[in-house]
Specification:
111 residues; alpha+beta
């Protein structure tokens, strides 16, 4: 069987994460920076939009166990220039304990 590639991406916006990054920076890092350095970092996080998404998802069945393979990516978009850069962060492989819909394709693998 062939691997099921899902083109849809589940995007997760991390607006609250930016607030957490800023407050953590202020608490632990800012004391070591000049005012100009602190403002430069603030401008960077304010001007950048972050999105984490699955670029592809596939399924494999190995030794009677079903696994989902997801390629997790991050996109950074500069709000001023509209330049966007994406990169793969990691590949997540997890066993799933439920049956897939009948029309879902998966790859059979041996030991």
């Amino acid at each position: 069987m062939e691997i099921n590639k899902i083109d849809k991406t589940d995007k997760i916006q991390f607006t609250n994460a930016i607030d957490l990054i800023w407050s953590t920076f202020l608490q632990f890092e800012a004391p070591d920076y000049s005012e100009e350095g602190t403002q430069s970092f603030k401008a960077f996080i304010d001007d950048t939009e972050y999105t984490v998404f699955n670029s592809s998802v596939s399924y494999i069945k190995q030794d009677g166990r079903l696994f989902q393979i997801a390629h997790v990516c991050r996109s950074e978009k500069d709000k001023k220039s509209d330049i966007q850069v994406s990169k793969e962060l990691y590949i997540n492989r997890c066993e799933i304990g439920y049956e897939l819909p009948d029309n879902t394709k998966y790859e059979e693998r041996g030991v």
